[in-house]
Amino acid sequence: MGLELYLDLLSQPCRAVFIFAKKNGIPFQLRTVQFLKGQNCSKEFLQINSLQKLPVLKDGDFILTESSAILIYLSCKYQVADHWYPSDLQTRSWIHEYLGWHADNIRNIFGVTLWIRIKPNLFHIRCLHHLLGPRCLRRRNATGPIWTMLCSNWSPSSWGISPSLWDSRC
């Protein structure tokens, strides 16, 4: 079996992987998993990813989760254009720095903020945002200086105007 991508295109990280693969002509079999219908909790999906998270890449017996890791894997395996995942070590390190920061701060903060307001309504349970909201707000405010620092490293003259994996996370 060739490359399989388990995705729910309602999810931004899944869309990033899907668009990247399509844009770069990477052949794959799309396996749609509908998160809102709970398909990520099925016995079949649990055998692929016991954490029940999307996206998932399956390449033969090799399974990889987390969109950033999947994007890097696809970039290297299919040798996409250098602007996506530059060969220059320092530029690549900036991309890794941003991807790590993005996962820890943007996805974590806004993901929690979003789901504590939406998920209870979907599953008809009491909303808990009054318990988690202040923590999320403090973390979001604390990331402002880091965001400024990360963005100051980027300029069209240093990386060119072509997109990179950095851009796929927005």
Automatic annotation (TrEMBL):
Its EC number is 2.5.1.18. One of its GO terms (cellular component) is cytoplasm. The keyword Ubl conjugation does not apply. It catalyses: RX + glutathione = an S-substituted glutathione + a halide anion + H(+). This is glutathione transferase. Residues 1-82 form the GST N-terminal domain. CDD domains: GST_N_Theta. GO terms for biological process: glutathione metabolic process. GO terms for molecular function: glutathione transferase activity. It holds the Pfam family GST_N. Keywords: Cytoplasm, Transferase. The keyword Membrane does not apply. It is found in: Cytoplasm. Homodimer. It is an enzyme of class 2 (transferase).
